[in-house]
Amino acid sequence: MTALKPLLITSGEPAGVGPEICATIAAGSLANTLNRPLVFLGDQRLLEERAQLTGASPGWKVIQDASQANSAGNYLIDIALQYPSRVGKPDTKNARYVLDLLDLACDECLTGVAAGIVTAPIQKSVISPLVPHFQGHTEYLAERCGQPGEVVMMLAGGGLKVALATTHVPLSDVPKVLNQVDLERTLRILLDALRKYWGRSAPHVLVTGLNPHAGESGTMGDEEIRIITPVLARLQAEGHLVSGPYPADTLFQPRFLKNADAVLAMYHDQGLPVLKYASFGEGVNISLGLPILRTSVDHGTALDLAGTGKANTGSLVSAIECAHQMDKHSRS
């Protein structure tokens, strides 16, 4: 028996690498190393067929719901595909299946049966016809939990933690959606998460500017003056360690980062290229601000690698280990 609740791992897009990296991990000893139940969600036949393609032999016990996973080990909740899946060939007919995996995992966490969700990658183009304007796991889970607009996307890896003030929006829209209210909420969520999940009693966050040279005193844009600096001043007045805004092109240096717990970047491709350069294949995508714990891989469905046996499990393993440690910190 273990006192630790299970982590639920959704196998993601059935045509991608998700099923096989899940099966490969279930063939190993990670669950016993963590002394925690790992419950994989997906079509049993699909996952085992992909396991055969890659030479993995998953050792899992098939269960009906996560409450039956009461000891360390690998488990599987069998959720049937709605349409046959071919390696590397996503089909919109399986959009509902992909969302069913997420919905079940989310509900099991909301009811307290499971400790958190770890997600394998999904194909947004498959789901968009079913869910118009679908943006990804982060936004979908926020809606499912009844907290739209209150979730922060952060990636961790290579010794860095980089959170985002805006997520999956076109670059041309970033200046339009950036505002003081949302930025302050994002920073408060990030600071709370660093305390709760990483045990930082006085977390220090470095904040980038939006424009080149952080606007250079307004000559290259005034978002730093109008939006970012006033928010930082309010939080600093409350005693929070938030610094900036800094030029993003010079911020990511050891001499700046060594005393910081995280960086908040203003948009997706401002902060994440640096982190992914430092840790791609081992990084973790983390959703902060949800009432549930959720981590994910740092890569996509890799359709070209599906079924070849060349897909790397590193990021999914890191995501599982990260969720495990976050859960333990939150209860200590």
From TrEMBL:
Catalytic activity: 4-(phosphooxy)-L-threonine + NAD(+) = 3-amino-2-oxopropyl phosphate + CO2 + NADH
EC number(s) given by UniProt: 1.1.1.262
Keywords recorded for this protein, A-Z: Cobalt, Cytoplasm, Magnesium, Metal-binding, NAD, NADP, Oxidoreductase, Pyridoxine biosynthesis, Zinc
Pfam family, one: PdxA
Subcellular location(s) of the protein: Cytoplasm
Principal subcellular localisation of the protein: cytoplasm
Misc. remarks from the entry: The active site is located at the dimer interface.
Family, as annotated: Belongs to the PdxA family.
Primary role: Catalyzes the NAD(P)-dependent oxidation of 4-(phosphooxy)-L-threonine (HTP) into 2-amino-3-oxo-4-(phosphooxy)butyric acid which spontaneously decarboxylates to form 3-amino-2-oxopropyl phosphate (AHAP).
PANTHER family hit by this protein: 4-HYDROXYTHREONINE-4-PHOSPHATE DEHYDROGENASE
Assembly, per entry: Homodimer.
Protein's name in the database: 4-hydroxythreonine-4-phosphate dehydrogenase
